[in-house]
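step=encode ok
step=design start
structure_in=
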């Protein structure tokens, strides 16, 4: 099966079926990761070398197993598509963002706060409408890179083994990659590996957002604002995305009871329900652009 058709099939499965409600492979992987963390980082005493060992034990055997399985005739092609489907989060992002968008449009601030609280780590209990819209828009833009475009990128580069390695690594970063006393040393490897795997996809995502929105403003925001952001990959993605939408994001946010003064992102109007809608539209059009380019490239090569 050609790369373009496999990408198209994986995206179609995700949009039709969404995340598996039962027996999600990442749930089982999360349990494995928790056991490894307890073994290698008991009481937060693990060092960087322990984190490297745990990462290798969690990711490499499963990646190698997928590589073996996709060599099988007939079954291998189906496994390629299923691996991509399991790694994608395009429909999931819509399922989490749309209730927030609908609640804001209805004027139901409490429902909007609850909805956005399910997808961001900041304290959402006291957010006003603008704060809820900022949080949701940022989540769509950033997770669009992590859960959609990076998965498509690594599938295009290395097939099912590539997308599995990326998705498992990204999951470990979400579980272990915190700068807390427990994970400062142990989670270092998971965070750095995920940064490396996301470096190119994040910049391609930022470029995609820029091309499909207010291009000049997006590129300017990317150049000026991304270096100020803590994350080397989230900065370009969110700065370019905010600029493409012509909206103001970033700014103060409360995490674990402490106010964090984050740099500004983008420029233009304050965030609103329409910013969330715009971010979702940017994401969908970006995926369509990538699929068209891959299919066109395959046709020209043939």
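sequence_out=
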């Amino acid at each position: 099966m050609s790369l373009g058709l496999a990408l198209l099939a994986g995206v179609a499965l995700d949009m039709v079926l969404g995340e598996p409600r039962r027996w999600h492979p990442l749930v089982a992987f999360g349990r494995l990761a928790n056991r490894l963390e307890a073994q290698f980082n008991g009481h937060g005493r693990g060092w960087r070398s322990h984190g490297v060992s745990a990462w290798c034990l969690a990711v490499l055997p499963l990646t190698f197993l997928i590589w073996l399985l996709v060599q099988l005739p007939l079954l291998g092609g189906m496994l390629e598509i299923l691996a991509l489907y399991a790694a994608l989060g395009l429909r999931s992002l819509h399922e989490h963002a749309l209730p927030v968008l609908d609640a804001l449009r209805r004027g139901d601030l409490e429902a909007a706060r609850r909805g956005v609280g399910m997808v961001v780590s900041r304290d959402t209990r006291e957010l006003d409408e603008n704060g809820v819209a900022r949080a949701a828009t940022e989540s769509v833009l950033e997770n669009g890179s992590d859960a959609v475009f990076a998965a498509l990128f690594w599938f295009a580069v290395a097939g099912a083994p590539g997308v599995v390695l990326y998705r498992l690594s990204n999951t470990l970063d979400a579980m272990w990659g915190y700068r807390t006393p427990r994970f400062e040393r142990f989670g270092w490897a998971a965070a750095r590996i995920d940064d490396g795997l996301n470096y190119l996809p994040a910049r391609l995502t930022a470029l995609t957002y820029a091309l499909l929105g207010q291009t000049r403003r997006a590129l300017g925001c990317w150049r000026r604002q991304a270096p100020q952001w803590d994350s080397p990959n989230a900065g370009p993605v969110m700065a370019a995305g905010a600029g493409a939408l012509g909206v103001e994001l970033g700014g103060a946010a409360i995490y674990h009871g402490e106010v964090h003064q984050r740099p500004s992102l983008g420029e233009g109007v304050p965030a609103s329900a329409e910013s969330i809608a715009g971010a979702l539209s940017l994401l969908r059009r970006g995926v369509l652009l990538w699929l068209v380019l891959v299919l066109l490239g395959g046709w020209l090569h043939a």
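step=design ok
step=annotate ok -> The radius of gyration is 19 Å.
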